[in-house]
Write a structure and sequence with these properties.
Blueprint (H helix, E strand, L loop, with lengths): L1 H29 L3 H12 L5 H16 L2 H19 L3 H6 L3
Helix pairs in contact: 2-4, 3-4
Length: 99
């Protein structure tokens, strides 16, 4: 029983290590303007009129995955502001979707 629990914990640790490694690689490749790059990438895929709704859904998944509201806010606020500027929405509306 302990070996099974240990192997499951090891798999979970490996999975999250890969996720954090991929996030670090993304930031390293994109550079300092990562929020702007994510916003433009998102708006290339999604029509601008659905941007706020998509930000809300993304915020739901991110907050569940991270387990912290402060982490979600600090992660998504720069992206929400960039999406608002590019799509023509109010920055207050775009930022309020992730709270």
């Amino acid at each position: 029983m302990c070996k099974k629990i240990f192997s499951v914990c090891l798999c979970i640790f490996f999975f999250f290590s890969c996720v954090f490694f991929a996030a670090g690689a993304f930031v390293g490749v994109v550079g300092r303007s990562s929020a702007q790059s994510v916003a433009y990438f998102m708006l290339d895929i999604i029509p601008p009129q659905f941007a706020v709704a998509v930000l809300f859904v993304v915020a739901c998944f991110v907050s569940t995955a991270m387990g912290t509201s402060v982490g979600t806010i600090t992660l998504l606020t720069p992206i929400a502001v960039e999406v608002a500027q590019v799509s023509g929405f109010s920055a207050a509306i775009s930022s309020a979707t992730r709270s």
